[in-house]
Amino acid sequence: MFDLRRIGAAVAAIVGLASVAARAEPPVLTWPLACTLGVDCTIQNYLDRDPTPGAADFACGSLTYNGHTGTDFRIADYVAMRRGVAVVAAAPGVVVGVRDGMEDVNARLTGHDSVADRSSGNVVAIAHGDGYETRYAHLRRGSVAVKKGDRVERGRLLGFVGLSGLTEFPHLHLTVRRDRVNIDPFTGESEWVACDPARSHAALPPTALWEKALAAALGYIATGLLKRGFSDHEPEAEAIEKGNHVATTLARTAPAIYFWASTYGVRADDVLQFRVFDPEGRIFTEHRRVVARHQAQRIEFVGKRRQHVEWLPGRYRGEFELRRGPPGRQAVVVSTVRDVTIE
User: Is residue 304 pLDDT above 80, yes or no?
Assistant: First the structure.
């Protein structure tokens, strides 16, 4: 007598093996926006690979937060956003969803609840076959350049970087999914695969989804500089995002002179060191702070308010360093200079 249950199980196993054999290769991704990494854009956050209430990126670092579903490509500020930074298809496919019309508003000011059911903001979703999908979120209002059903090639304009949805700075949030499971494009692994602290992250693994030449240039950078500048007013985060506090000249009667730096991936015990030199090469003001906790982003500054006399005219130079490591053996992780002229 035939055992129908065993026959059915065998057939299912054969079909399953055939299905696995037929599954397509994952999409090969190219750079998804018109900017140069480390020059006018940076990677602010990666996919969260920690299944606990904590958070860890693919390198077991802190460039993510609990539940983060993709990669955040941050542009300079609102000025760059208004000028337009193009978002393009990272791989060919078919557009399966779009949304446009949401305002570009900082959710820190309006409240996260205002966009709770539309956290992606203006978005384009593209299917690449075999369950793979990419989603391009927080696009600028009115910029979406495709419609549902469009077949797009790699590099096709999808829209522009914006500030729509649940976001506090202009950026592209790129999500890669397969069968509704988030995939880390920097490893090719799912969000359910924990980060490996033993793995070297100077270069990406061969399973990364980025095209080969691009993957070779995308080694993990845990900490970096976002922006720096001079201002005659105490710098504030929202004003910096709007492109303010980046003066190249200040008046002799300016109420103050501030030098600031915005960095990402700051860690506990990092040392932030500022020095500003006057036109005669003397230390005008300086500041040193030891960071108390890990931070995704930090704005720090040094400054001096004007008393009764005008500022000495000429060129002032600001120097900033972020140092990391045990006392006496600290390494410089970030270093930058900026000048301002007092006229």
Answer: yes
